[in-house]
């Protein structure tokens, strides 16, 4: 039966089949008509292009299995068979169309039973609209919403962690002040004590400053930390008569805040010790800091060209009652550092390693 026979004459001088064909040629909608075996008998030009055909006639006699993946074609076929059997249309269903060439597009589709003048079901017809852009926008919005929710959750956890860290670091400062008080003697001046403690507090502040510049507030580049620490100490001694230069060779190694705070304090004590004791009687001094990855550990080589020590650094730490050396010993334990070598032959040199389990 010809398709044009389904259209009754309206009395217009223009043939209705011509009008309908013109509609199918120009509409942006995806329109099709199929027989009882789900073979195309007519379609819009837009659908033909979507299926890779240059003319509508190229679709005649073919099925969805010729254009789509087995999964999509099978679902469409079963839908059409159900519609013909029940005569119940499917309105506004969302279809994911997977093509044989790998393309994936989305459509909003309504499908109906196709009946002849005697009300006999002779196939199906449907109209679809491409909603790929809308679907992609919705998926992107859902993804962004999920990312935002995850980000907010992470920020809440991080905020709680920041409060915890600040509390712990305030406890560290309190402990250092108590140690400073216990080690104070008649030769200590208030200005010297304040200056020394200020440097220690700044070493903690540097960790937080660098931490807040990161995206996740959870990791610190050890090189940035060392450079900032050296700049701050150098600035605090700028009125001193001696000039100290730094040679820094540090790999990009990431520390967690739990490692960064004691490491920063430890390096602060070493640098302060050099400034205060190594260069006595000298107008110039040099400090070298080398930090490298070695066999899964972080190796630090700290040295200066000062006067050195009469004993090994390890022996000095064990015997000394000074606050600075006591802190070095305590902070080394906090980061689980162990000495590899120390030397006093040409100034002072101290090499130690510690594990960095998170990275």
Description:
There is one protein chain. The chain has about 350 residues and is of the alpha+beta class. The chain has two domains: about 15-135, PAS domain (Beta-Lactamase), CATH 3.30.450; about 210-355, 2-Layer Sandwich (Heat Shock Protein 90). It contains nine helices and twelve strands. A five-stranded antiparallel β-sheet has the order 2-1-5-4-3, sandwiched between helices. Strands 7-9-10-12-11 form a five-stranded mixed β-sheet, covered by helices on one side. Strand 4 and strand 5 form a beta hairpin. Helix 5 packs antiparallel against helix 7 (about 255-280) and helix 6 (about 220-235) runs parallel beside helix 7.
Q: Tell me the name of the CATH class of the largest domain.
A: Alpha Beta
Radius of gyration: 39 Å
State the major sheet: 5 strands, antiparallel
Report low-confidence residues grouped into runs of 5 or more: 1-10
First-last Cα distance: 75 Å
Shape: rod-shaped
The SS-based structural class is alpha+beta
Catalytic activity: ATP + protein L-histidine = ADP + protein N-phospho-L-histidine
Domain PAC: 82-143
Domain Histidine kinase: 161-359
Protein name: histidine kinase
What are the salient characteristics of this protein?
single chain; 359 residues; alpha+beta; Beta-Lactamase; Heat Shock Protein 90; 2 domains; 5-stranded antiparallel beta sheet; 5-stranded mixed beta sheet; 9 helices; 24% strand; disordered N terminus; virulence; transferase; coiled coil; EC 2.7.13.3; ATP-binding
């Amino acid at each position: 039966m010809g398709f044009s026979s389904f259209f009754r004459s309206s009395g217009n001088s223009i043939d209705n089949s011509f009008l309908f064909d013109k509609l199918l040629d120009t509409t942006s909608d995806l329109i099709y008509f199929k027989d009882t075996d789900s073979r195309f008998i007519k379609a819009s030009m837009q659908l033909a292009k979507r299926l890779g055909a240059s003319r509508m006639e190229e679709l005649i006699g073919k099925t969805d299995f010729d254009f789509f993946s087995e999964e999509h074609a099978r679902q469409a076929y079963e839908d059409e068979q159900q519609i013909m059997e029940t005569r119940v249309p499917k309105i506004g269903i969302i279809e994911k169309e997977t093509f044989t060439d790998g393309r994936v597009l989305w459509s909003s589709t309504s499908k109906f039973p196709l009946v002849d003048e005697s009300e006999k079901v002779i196939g199906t017809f449907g109209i679809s609209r491409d909603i790929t852009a809308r679907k992609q926008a919705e998926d992107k919005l859902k993804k962004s919403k999920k990312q935002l929710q995850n980000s907010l959750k992470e920020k809440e956890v991080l905020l709680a962690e920041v409060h915890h860290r600040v509390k712990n670091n305030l406890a560290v400062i309190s402990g250092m002040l108590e140690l400073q008080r216990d080690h104070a003697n008649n030769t200590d001046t208030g200005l010297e004590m304040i200056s020394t403690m200020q440097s220690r507090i700044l070493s903690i502040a540097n960790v937080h400053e660098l931490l807040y510049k990161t995206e996740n507030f959870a990791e610190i580049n050890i090189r940035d930390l060392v450079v900032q620490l050296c700049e701050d100490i150098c600035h605090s001694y700028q009125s001193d008569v001696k000039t100290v230069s730094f040679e820094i060779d540090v790999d990009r190694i990431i520390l967690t805040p739990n490692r960064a705070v004691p490491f920063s304090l430890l390096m602060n004590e070493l640098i302060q010790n050099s400034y205060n004791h190594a260069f006595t009687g000298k107008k110039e001094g040099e400090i070298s800091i080398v930090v490298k990855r070695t066999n899964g550990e972080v190796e630090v080589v700290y040295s200066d060209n000062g006067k050195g020590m009469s004993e090994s650094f390890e022996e000095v730490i064990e015997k000394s009652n000074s606050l600075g050396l006591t802190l070095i010993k305590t902070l080394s334990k906090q980061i689980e550092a162990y000495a590899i070598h120390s030397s006093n032959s040409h100034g002072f040199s101290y090499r130690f390693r510690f594990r960095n389990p998170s990275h």
